[in-house]
Amino acid sequence: MAPTLSPPGALTDMGRALLRWFGGWWRVVHLGAQLLVLALSPSSYTRANRLAMAHHIVVGTAPMLLWFTLLSSLISLVIIRIVVVTAASYGLSQYALQMVVRVLVLELIPLTAAIFVALRIGLPDGRELARMRLRGELDALRQHGLDPLAHEVLPRTLAGAFAVLMLAAVAGLVTLVLAYLTVHGFTPGAFERYTRTVGQVFSPAVTLIFTIKTFLLALAVSLIPVASAIYDLPHGKARTSAEVRALVRLFLMMLLIEAASLVGNYY
Questions:
Q1: The pTM is what?
Q2: DSSP of the chain
Q3: How many domains does the chain have?
Q4: Does any domain span residue 23?
Q5: 68 within a domain of the structure (yes/no)
Q6: Each residue of 137-160: pLDDT tens digit?
């Protein structure tokens, strides 16, 4: 039989696990504060760092922009058609556009963009930084007088955040155009009424919540995998455990951000 832990031993293990959990989140917050200071510091934008930022932004965002926009457009067309037809069958056509904007532009598109960037940029960048740390490349940069955070971590973090904001903005704009064309067709006569409907959805409070939500999603996607790669890989640990912890933290934070956004918009 496997030995059972006594109640004091179980409580001790639970306390240690809780301390490790809070310690992991504290390291994420601490790294975010360091990167914020670096992002606001002019000394971080040397020629080499600017070239690294531009490289990561282009390599990370450009390949995803076209196919993410096409994929989100196809899914949006299906959802728009379903919402419009369903609303018309119940005599609620006047609310169809508001429902489309709220469901797609406010909720689904920013969350989907964050998930795509996490899988495409955030987690791969975390793995790459973990390999660099194991190979001693980050320490070598420090020995040569270069700050690894400014030279390697900050460009990846800014590129991930930029990718989320760009994908959400482009896909949201395309969805608004598709919603207009699906409901009103290729006629400019309904543009004034359409903009009035969209403006009713994007009230000042909703716009503020939407902006903060998208920014926080971009920050979480770009920061949490990188922080896990830097701090959650002690000697002798497998890289997989750090990636699993990064995924758990990331999706927990995304869930909390989305829940807070829903409460702010509809409570």
A1: 0.88
A2: -PPPPPHHHHHHHHHHHHHHHHHHHHHHHHHHHHHHHHHH-GGG--HHHHHHHHHHHHHHHHHHHHHHHHHHHHHHHHHHHHHHHHHHHTT-GGGHHHHHIIIIIIIIHHHHHHHHHIIIIIHHHHHHHHHHHHTTHHHHHHHTT--HIIIIIHHHHHHHHHHHHHHHHHHHHHHHHHHHHHHH-S-GGGHHHHHHHHHHHS-HHHHHHHHHHHHHHHHHHHHHHHHHHHHS--TT--HHHHHHHHHHHHHHHHHHHHHHHHHHHH-
A3: 1
A4: no
A5: yes
A6: 888 888 887 788 888 899 999 999
